[in-house]
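Figure 6 in text form: structure in, sequence out.
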């Protein structure tokens, strides 16, 4: 990298590991509660709209009120990143602003304690605060719920899950996210 301008192409997509997994579960017409934080900006509105569309398309009662499970922040932008991909399709660099993920704190997530204790599985994105991960993992252990995490880990978060969740499920997928009772899955 030498500061030069290079020819390339750009596109904008909704994403993030948690969003992508939640959307995939919803496309399977399974209930899913996606707990996240977004800015009061265009990308945030796109995510809220996407969640509302999934509810309408799937009659997804677990996500019936997107205003409660998506924290809207005035002071921070929706988490986003720019991914630099080379001619072979390999990721070379990611530059991102994920500060809003720090607002998915224990206090916010605790609003969903009842749902967390009744779900069949919890999937945690490791870009949220360690305290929140510890809290969710403790709830999972107490309720004997499988936890999948960390889904995103640059090497610094893996230790959080050691000894907190009994038999934690770790990437790679696939995993059966649905069960016979059609209980909710929760993505944080």
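Output sequence:
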């Amino acid at each position: 990298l030498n500061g030069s301008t290079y020819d390339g192409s750009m596109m904008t997509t909704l994403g993030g590991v948690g969003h992508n997994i939640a959307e995939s579960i919803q496309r399977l017409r399974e209930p899913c509660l996606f707990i996240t934080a977004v800015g009061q900006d265009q990308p945030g509105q796109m995510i809220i709209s996407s969640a509302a569309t999934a509810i309408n398309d799937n009659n997804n009662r677990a996500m019936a009120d997107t205003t409660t499970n998506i924290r809207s922040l005035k002071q921070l932008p929706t988490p986003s990143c720019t991914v630099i991909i080379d001619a072979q399709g390999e990721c070379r660099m990611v530059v991102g602003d994920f500060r809003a993920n720090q607002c998915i704190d224990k206090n916010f997530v605790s609003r969903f304690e009842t749902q967390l204790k009744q779900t069949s599985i919890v999937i945690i994105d490791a870009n949220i605060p360690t305290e929140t991960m510890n809290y969710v993992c403790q709830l999972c252990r107490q309720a004997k719920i499988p936890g999948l995490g960390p889904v995103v880990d640059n090497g610094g978060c893996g230790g959080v899950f050691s000894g907190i969740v009994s038999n934690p499920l770790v990437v790679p997928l696939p995993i059966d996210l649905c069960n016979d009772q059609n209980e909710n899955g929760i993505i944080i």
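Caption detail: Residues 17-187 form a domain with the UDP-N-acetylmuramoyl-L-alanine:D-glutamate ligase fold (CATH 3.40.1190.20).
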